[in-house]
Each structure stands twice: as structure tokens, then as C-alpha cells.
Design brief:
Distance between the termini: 32 Å
Oligomer: single chain
Helix content: 40-55%
CATH superfamily: NAD(P)-binding Rossmann-like Domain
Order of helices and strands: EHEHEHEHEHEHHEH
Radius of gyration: 17 Å
Number of strands: 7
Largest sheet: 7 strands, parallel
Number of domains: 1
Number of helices: 8
Strand order of the largest sheet: 3-2-1-4-5-6-7
Shape: globular
Strand content: 5-15%
Length: 248
């Protein structure tokens, strides 16, 4: 039997082809989990699979899909049930920035897309995966959020609103499941060297920011942690400074 901390556990990661989602997938695989990787781009998923195979000797399960398609998330839940019978770890990292423009200038189709990807997909994911998480002995759900959810700023309207909605949704869901073994956490990665950050802050030097790979150990730690209800977010920069989850 493997002595890896997440050996034989099933981990679903959204947004797995790049950025923080990719870092989460690699870290969880290295810790022994079998990763079900979800992203829109098949080629990027195949590249991730190559890296996981090189790292662990075992493949990931690749799911190319747009998470805004709720029926697809339902089908994914059914497929995981049929193949594995449970889900041990959920990392929901997929999100889009949306237009950086005044609220009054946002085009309805752009607003609808950000809401669909960042908020509605989160609800559909919870709806589809909750029965699978309940079937696990030690289920953990990790949702990526942002400080923008509680610190509104000009031109960040769609992104900030949807992250605020995500936080409310996750806290509500966690409260409903307090008497079960399912535990959820909100994880704020702070600023990182991601494509989304470059889109939002094009004049910023990316070399001054942490690489997404640095958050991998925290995600693995959260997947094992004895979590309470998410009263506040776990902030990556606090954890990195403190050196432990308990002090973060």
C-alpha cells in the first residue's frame, strides 16, 4: 500500500489545464490522488496528463468540457458515480475575469457568461457532486475565491459579484452539511502569476508574483485538514507567511 497522503483518493479539479487548477491537479496527483481533470481545451488537458504520467506513472481522467453547460456537469457526476462510486476531493478553480468596464457599460451577453461560469456552474457542481462526496469517508471541497468578493473595486463588477455569490453559496451549503462528513473551504490565492492576473493587470511584472505551483502544497494540506465551517477564507499569502494552516 502506498504511503502517499492522498493514496487511492479521487479528486475532481475544474480549470485544470492552466494556472491554479493545473497546479492543484499536479499537487494532488503527486500526493497519490487519481485526478479527474476538467477544462475546455483538450490539448492542454493532454499536456497535463503527460506531466502527471511522468510524475506518477499513472494517467489522469480527462474531461474536456465547458462548465457553463450544467447538463454536462450532471453527466460528469453520473460518470464519476459509475466509475468510482464516490468523490473524495473537489477543487473548483475554474473561473473567468469578464469585462473590466463600468457596470453601466457591461454588455448583457458578457454579464451572462461570467455569471454562468463563475456562479451558476458552482451551484450545478455542488448539486451534482454532493451525493458523491457524501459517499466518501473524508470528503473535502475546496472553492477558489478572491479578496475582490469583499473588497469591491471599480471595473471589477462581474468578477467581484460572482465571487461574492460563490462565497455565500459555499457557506450556505457547508452550513446545511454541518452534520455530515462533507467539509468545504474557501481558498483565496491572493495574487499569483496567472493568465487572469495578467489580463486584469497588464502593466504588472509577473516575475514579482508567486508561481501557481506554490499553492499546491496548501491544497494538498486542505484536502486532509480537519475543517470547520468556512466562516472566512483561507488566504494563501497568510499561510505562506505562517508556515502552517492552523496559523494562517
Amino acid at each position: 500500500m502506498s504511503d502517499l497522503p492522498l493514496s487511492d483518493r479521487i479528486a475532481l479539479v475544474t480549470g485544470a489545464s492552466r494556472g491554479i487548477g493545473r497546479a492543484a491537479a499536479l499537487a494532488l496527483a503527486a500526493a497519490g490522488a487519481h485526478v479527474v481533470a476538467v477544462a475546455r481545451t483538450p490539448g492542454a488537458l493532454e499536456a497535463l496528463d503527460d506531466e502527471i504520467r511522468a510524475l506518477t506513472g499513472a494517467p489522469a481522467t480527462l474531461v474536456p468540457m465547458d462548465i457553463a453547460e450544467g447538463d454536462g456537469l450532471d453527466q460528469l457526476g453520473l460518470a464519476i458515480h459509475q466509475r468510482f462510486g464516490r468523490l473524495d476531493i473537489l477543487v473548483h478553480a475554474a473561473a473567468i475575469l469578464g469585462p473590466m468596464t463600468p457596470v453601466g457599460h457591461i454588455e448583457p451577453q458578457h454579464w451572462d457568461r461570467v455569471v454562468a461560469v463563475n456562479l451558476s456552474a458552482s451551484y450545478r457542481l455542488i448539486r451534482s457532486m454532493e451525493p458523491l462526496l457524501r459517499a466518501s469517508e473524508h470528503p473535502r471541497a475546496i472553492f477558489l475565491t478572491s479578496g475582490r468578493a469583499i473588497r469591491p473595486k471599480a471595473f471589477w463588477g462581474p468578477y467581484g459579484v460572482t465571487k461574492a455569490g460563490l462565497e455565500h453559496l459555499v457557506r450556505t451549503w457547508a452550513d446545511e452539511l454541518e452534520q455530515t462528513n462533507v467539509r468545504a473551504v474557501l481558498l483565496d490565492p491572493s495574487v499569483m502569476r496567472t493568465r487572469m492576473r495578467a489580463e486584469a493587470m497588464p502593466g504588472e511584472d509577473p516575475e514579482t508574483l508567486p508561481d501557481p505551483s506554490e499553492i499546491g502544497p496548501l491544497i494538498v494540506e486542505l484536502a486532509q485538514a480537519d475543517l470547520g465551517l468556512p466562516k472566512s477564507s483561507v488566504v494563501f499569502s497568510d499561510w505562506k507567511t505562517a508556515g502552517t494552516l492552523a496559523s494562517a
